[in-house]
Design a protein that fits this description.
With 460 residues, the chain is an alpha+beta fold. It folds into two domains: 271 residues, paralog of FGE (formylglycine-generating enzyme); 144 residues, no CATH class. The protein has eleven helices and twelve strands. Keywords: Lipoprotein. This is Gliding motility lipoprotein GldK. InterPro entries: CTDL_fold, Glid_motil-assoc_lipo_GldK, Sulfatase_Mod_Factor_Kinase, SUMF_dom, SUMF_sf.
């Protein structure tokens, strides 16, 4: 006997009959129009293609095993046109701060939902009352199952008050004060948030291990809880014999540095930011404010994707602008790096960037990407190994089974403290994933479905 099962699509809001539709034939009901990938805000489209990966020029370091030449192909993707800035990363930090505060307030409010005091911050399910849905009642009956459910949705419409003069009641004050550094630990009695409590929790699936074991299940879910505040002490730790205290005090939060690349972020923190960025977009789509399918996730670029994007569409480009020189025809430097021994300033007339520079200070490359060389080095998703190029695939090369376990991660691009050679598109370097540096930042990418008819240039 031959058993055949037919799966047919159903319209939104209706149940499926489980039977073939038009005259007994299988006719998909999806729209016949082609899918067009929408470019996210602040990103540029990188069309897929092939290129020669590795150092195209002489490897002056005498270690060719770090970057041998190899032809590879990468698929299309969207990429941030700049490094993630301090202002963008602060949105992440503030979201974590507010979500923790709202959760603490909701737990303290309990069932006492009201229009006044701390009761205003109760979970939405508590506020629903008689309007509670059947699904919410079911979740309530199951109790706390150790994960997030609709029964614990926060009310983000109710404003938070951080000024002590605006606290609505004593219970509210007690909850919010628990997020600040205890009085006996304060310096000069300065009331500051305890940044060590700003933890972002999320989970992801170890697909490589699941496929290897020919199995799927919760045992392959990796739960992460990451402290998201950047390490501002890197400006002092990285340079013990330099006066960098002003950057330690102000670089991350002062508005003067809002358009500068965020630094002091570990590889794990960069990945947590990608998850938050994905969550923010998916929550927006689910809210119904903009119709559409769930967006592709944001992530760090692989080493091959990063190098392909850095070349800007040029074959064997020594630098993102082509090369082989570090200056243009007027003698102006084309990136933020250390041009001479002891001289960290590229423009002697302006002399304004001895450290990092605003993310759009220098010219963009052929793909429209800024600072793919210099300013700050950038984390990639890929693990680092001298023999990576030898055994990785020639199609979208990536070592997925080692990416999470390998403590050494590849960083690319060179930084403000490096000499010109490190800025070459094929140059490789690494750092431990739990390390934060004053010269390492990151940018994110988003996959583009292979079936896209074309890449939409605007997100509007």
């Amino acid at each position: 006997m031959l058993a055949a099962s037919f799966v047919v699509s159903c319209s939104r809001g209706k149940t499926s009959s489980g039977k073939p539709d038009s005259r007994g034939e299988l006719v998909p009901k999806e729209s016949k129009s082609s899918f067009v990938a929408q470019r996210p805000y602040g990103m540029v489209a990188i069309p897929g293609g092939s290129f020669v990966m590795g150092l195209a020029d002489v490897d002056f370091s005498g270690t060719p095993e770090k970057a041998p030449l190899k032809t590879v192909t990468v698929s299309s993707f969207f990429m941030d046109e700049t490094e993630v800035t301090n202002s963008e990363y602060r949105l992440f930090v503030n979201y974590v701060r507010d979500s923790i505060a709202r959760t603490l307030l909701a737990e303290a409010a309990g069932d006492a939902a009201s229009e006044e005091g701390i009761g205003r911050y109760a979970y939405l399910a508590k506020k629903a009352g008689e309007n509670t849905t059947a699904y919410q009642k079911f979740l309530e009956s199951q109790g706390d199952r150790g994960g997030y459910t609709d029964a614990k949705k926060l009310d983000w419409k109710t404003p938070l008050y951080w000024k002590t003069s605006q606290y609505p009641d004593e219970k509210y004050a007690e909850v919010l004060e628990s997020m600040y550094i205890a009085p006996d630990r304060r310096i000069n009695n300065e009331r500051l948030l305890d940044n060590g409590k700003l933890m972002y929790s999320y989970q992801w699936e170890d697909i490589a291990s699941a496929v290897k074991d020919k199995n799927r299940g919760v045992q392959y879910l990796k739960k992460e809880s990451i402290a998201v505040y950047p390490d501002t002490t890197v400006w002092v730790k990285d340079f013990n014999y330099a006066y960098n205290e002003p950057l330690f005090d102000r670089y991350f939060w002062h508005k003067a540095y809002k358009d500068y690349p965020v630094v002091g972020v570990t590889w794990d923190q960069a990945r947590a930011f990608c998850d938050y960025k994905t969550k923010a977009k998916r929550d927006y789509v689910k809210s119904g404010k903009k119709r559409g399918e769930s967006p592709m996730k944001f992530r760090l670029p692989t080493e091959a994707e990063w190098e392909y994007a850095a070349r800007g569409g040029m074959e064997n480009a020594t630098y993102p602008w082509g090369g082989p020189y570090l200056t243009d025809d007027r003698g102006c430097y084309l990136a933020n790096f250390k041009p001479k021994r002891g001289n960290y300033i590229e423009d002697e007339k302006k002399g304004t960037y001895p450290y990092t520079a605003p993310v759009k200070t220098f010219h963009k490359n052929g793909f429209g990407l800024y600072n793919m060389a210099g300013n700050v080095s950038e984390w990639t998703e890929s693990p680092y190994s001298n023999s990576t190029y030898q055994f990785s695939s020639t199609l979208n090369p990536y070592l997925s089974n080692q990416a999470y376990r390998e403590p050494r991660k590849t960083v690319r691009g060179g930084s403000w403290k490096d000499v010109g050679y490190v800025l070459m598109t094929g140059y490789r370097d690494w750092e431990r994933k739990d390390s934060a540096r004053s010269y390492i930042g990151f940018r994110t990418i988003q996959d583009v479905p292979a079936g896209s008819a074309r890449l939409r240039r605007s997100s509007k």
